[in-house]
Amino acid sequence: MEPQGQLAASNMIESLTSWWELAGVDAAVGETPIDWLTLDATVEVAKSANIPTPTAKEKVAAAPAKPAIDWPSDVESLKAMITGGIALPSNRFGTSFVAPAGPATSDVMVISDIPDQDELVGKVLGSGMTGMLLSRMMAAVNVKLADCYWTALATTIPPTGEVPENCHQELADFVRHQIDLIRPKSLVVLGSSSSKALLGEELMDARRSLQIINHDGSNMAVLTTFHPRTLIARPAMKAQAWKDLQMFAKRDSL
Predict the structure, then answer these.
(1) Residue 63 CA from chain centroid, whole number
(2) Rounded alpha-carbon distances, angstroms, from residue 231 to 127, 156, 180, 196
(3) Distance of CA 181 to the CA centre of its chain
(4) What is the residue-averaged pLDDT of the chain?
(5) What is the signed CA dihedral for 110, 200, 239, 101, rounded to 10 degrees?
(6) What confidence category does residue 204 fall into, taking pLDDT thresholds of 50, 70 and 90?
(7) Strand intervals (E) in the chain
(8) How many angstroms separate the CA atoms of 191 and 204, rounded?
């Protein structure tokens, strides 16, 4: 039996090296161009995912509750307050704080549930193995992860390893505050807790279509898909994630 560390590393290597194959790119340079935005370009294994044709549906984001302390009014202050351990909603679960990543303005905002253990060292989301995989996933639909703003419901890791459901409302309100600061055109929601907190839906229900939410008078396309850590642990699910990303690639046509 492989030691746990070797098994995790093996899973990560498989996820990173096989993602491009799933996306239809099995070599660094190829003779035949690939149409990334056409569903027909999906590899055969994705056909078994049985994902319905994307349809837009309207959702209205709830207004944030009044915070106990003043929330920061700019992104750089917000990042500094999180890494400084200030009593913001996302900081309430531990003592090691992981800041959001990315620029203060971005067309795409990524929302996940909690940091991973290997992100505690870099103290910023995306600095670990899941960030490497998500970067490749987004690049497959012509989005640079470095250009995205990435935040999480919890910027510390809860003792249970999951975001408590009774905290979803407050944490979602703080994420909506960040949406107000970033003003993105679209959202990528990763994982079950994020889907429940922000959309009020289970992951498998939310990811059936590319949704449209209205936030403060602005419509945003929302993709809900698996967190990269799930794909590392269960590589067979990458085909379904690729189908999700193809829907996101068509967001401008909605």
Answers:
(1) 22
(2) 17, 22, 30, 19
(3) 18
(4) 82
(5) 10
(6) very high
(7) 58-60, 108-112, 149-152, 186-190, 211-215, 218-225
(8) 10
Cα–Cα distance measured from residue 51 to residue 210, given in angstroms and rounded to the nearest whole number: 11
> pTM for the complete prediction?
0.77
Q: What is the end-to-end Cα distance of the chain in Å, rounded?
A: 49
User: 79-107, pLDDT tens digit by residue?
Assistant: 999 999 999 999 999 999 999 999 999 99
Has residue 17 got a pLDDT over 70?
Answer: no
The burial class, CB within 10 Å (0-12 / 13-18 / 19+), for 48 is exposed
pLDDT of residue 93: 95
Nearest to 197 by CA among 220, 163, 248, 229: 163
Residues 33-66: pLDDT tens digits? 444 344 333 333 333 334 344 343 444 344 444 4
What secondary structure does DSSP assign to 18-82, as a single string? HHHHHTT--SSS-SS---TT-GGGS-GGGGGG-PPPP---EEEPPPPPPPSSPPPSSHHHHHHHH
Q: Angle at which helices 192-199 and 168-182 pack, to 10 degrees?
A: 80
Distances (CA, A) of 202 to 224, 226, 251: 10, 12, 21
Instruction: Give burial (CB, 10 Å; 0-12/13-18/19+) of 216.
Output: exposed
Render the burial of 10-35: b for 16+ CB within 10 Å, e for the rest: ebbeebeeebeebbbbeeeeeeeeee
